[in-house]
Amino acid sequence: MSGSRPGTATLVAADTRLRFPVSDQPLACRTEPRVFAIEDVSTTDDPRAREKATAQAKQACSGCPVAAECLKWALANPDLTPTGVWAATTKRERKRLRKQLVARLGDDWPGVVAEQDRRRREQQRAARTAPPTVRDQALARLELELVPTRPEPYNPWSQPITPQQAAANRRVLERALTGKAA
Ligand code: SF4
């Protein structure tokens, strides 16, 4: 699945090491591409119109189920994401984040991040196939006893996003940049 948006010419090949995430849920940038076309917003009547549109697009990304993976893809593909908001970042923020990644992981940082992701997936696969230990089972039981009622899982597409959820998603995005995303 390409990360390009409707109406965007894609003559540049994407870096296939960090793929655009697949989601079975609707993505705001697909269902409402105009919200993300910040550069198309006219500032003739309202000098702050673009700023407001950017905030709105960032808010939409905060409720996105694939925000962390989208951020990695957007950072790894600067030629495909030269404008607009991607994963709650503007082009200037993406430029700054790329510089930080190069400083921390080197010029081939997408390769490093892709390798980290591959190892994480392997570990998760191994964890799924390995039966839980007696200790893990005891801890899980204890946790259930201590937390008898759990809140309903947040559904970003049927409920308005809360400031807490937006902040949590932002933290996921930031962790993705350090390679510590779950
Ligand atoms: S984080 Fe934003 S730009 Fe990325 S897929 Fe989600 S809605 Fe689209």
From TrEMBL:
Originating species: Streptomyces pakalii
UniProt domain 4Fe-4S Wbl-type: residue ranges: 28-96
One family name in Pfam for this protein: Whib
Compositional bias ranges of the Basic and acidic residues kind: 115-125
Full protein name: WhiB family transcriptional regulator
Listed Polar residues bias regions: 156-167
Segments for region (Disordered): 114-168
